Prior knowledge:
This protein has 16 helices and 21 strands. The chain is an alpha+beta fold and 671 residues long.
Amino acid sequence: MRRSTTLMVTAGLLPIVALSGAFGFLTLRAQHAAVFTGTSAAAKFSAALAETKLGDGMRAVNMIAQSPAFDAALDVDRFRTLALRLKDGESAWRTLSVANPAGRRLIDVPTPIGIPGGPVVDRPSLDRAVRTRGPVVGNVVAGPNGRYAFAIRAPVIRGGEVRYVVSAVIAADTVRPLLLFHNLPDGWRAAIVDGSGSLVASSSPSSSSVGRHVSLPGLQSRRSGRPSFYAFRRGDGMSAVGTWSPIAGTDWSVHVSAPATQYSVPARQALALLIVVAFLCLLLLVIFVRLLSIETRHARDRQLAELQSQRLEALGRLTGGVAHDLNNLLTPIVGGLDLLRRRIGDDPRALRHVEAAAASADRARSLVARLLSFARRQTLSAQDLEVGPLLDDLHDLLVRTLGPSIAVEIDVADGLPPLHADRGQLELAILNLAINARDPMPAGGTVMIRAAPASDPAAAGLPQGDYIAISVADAGMGMDDRTLRQATEPFFTTKPVGEGTGLGLSMVHGFAAQSGGALQLASTPGQGTVATIVLPRGGQPLAVAKEAGGDVPPSRRMRILLVDDEEMVRQSTADMLREIGYAVVEAPSVQSARTIMRERGPFDAILTDYLMPGETGADLVREVRAQFPDMPIILLTGYADGATDVDPAIPRFAKPFRLAELAEKLAFLSR
């Protein structure tokens, strides 16, 4: 009995001792990790601030390098004007300088750096900018006046070669506030170190150490390329431990250290915790059993959730496949009903039955579309944007952004066709223009947004074609001719320092140009400004296509090769094409299409299914593109899942489709 009792007591005490030791060890590790985590977090935070600050400077200097002042020979007066304007907005910039790739300074604004026309102070960073052909941040060096500074440099590239290097010289002491933004615990220190290992700034009250090399352990840790903990003796004589974080986009780094004594405190705390834990372990054993049962139940719930997730994924795949097959089945139904509607004439009873069947088919199309959306197998391709609904969705955001003193009015022309552009970028551009329209009306007013077909694309420097114009007008103070000419230049702004970056209109201008359009500005002093985004027109609205598409035959009888392995789909599509007025040759496979093209070609266009046994529509597209680069090709598919091997520029046409929609899709062939 006594032995059994001893065994039971031993068995009870063993886990208590083990848990106490483990708890103390884990507590000690947690306290040690807290110092590392705190210094790492502080280093990363300061590095993020420095990355933002230096990144802004690199982008600004790189934007200067794109100035037209460097397009030909160096336009000294124009650069000086631009530099003085930019320097007024960048208080940290001492000097803006231009040097040749050999390192000889050509111009310094506002005052020369040392001897006019002399060499650059930090030659390695200039050579690096020339070599990498991109903006760089140099090392901290002492200038001719003995003050420490560093340079942000960007190459001026014209005709594929570096002609000049633009540099912004920044005082080292302007970087120190980045370290003071984060309140460090007592005894902690933060420092910014440049690529050569020299100290740029320190959170220490003394700034006399700027420019000196940091401790060897810190440099060795940085050379390893992986942030780690290291021990060293600080400049104030205190033993410390520290870590570092890189400043992205540069070869600089941020180092944060803590007194080494903070490592001994967790050990004493761990010992006290061990004593307390020894008394609590008996209670913890009871809690452990309870927690174990709870965790077992949670694990079972997680397994059920994982199983449910797998079921949903399988259901999604099954739904996508079923929807694809339904689209193939609906294609001859929808097409056949359209053909019947054109042939029954004036029989109202028959027409009523056909219309009812067509309505049911449309509901089935909508149901399949929802199934594809649920299964995440819907076609993801660039689509045209209806301007009216887009502006309606944007109205509430504009009202909240512009404030209660500004009224927002929207006027969209009737029957306005869609335009082709990125929705998010277009909304951002309209928001930028609306904010610009608000600022010249401090007492309030009306911002008018109009959308209509562009009347004169040539005036915007665009080629002939159909375009949509979205204009944002205000009744503010307007701009004179000089301001109007410079309005889209990067960093140009008429707002006070700190209230505008001068990038809003240049961003809108870049978006419009990248979208195949243009930005137009018209302004009269005292009468307001009108900013107009001209963008390419997309396809016709669906309502117009339904009315006009099926009744516009091609101007000549054109031959189309139709490739689809589903016989009913192929026959129905062929009948619709013939009804429109095209001559159709059918092929049930890629191999058959290849033979037909060789024996009966050429064709005016090819319509091909994607998913077919053996060779897919992608194989046919590649062969046709290799032989006939300009031949129109349209990919017919239930959904685009798996069609990643097809050129994104190839138009997709989703099944099922109406006769009018098919006619509209092919209308470009007769133009």
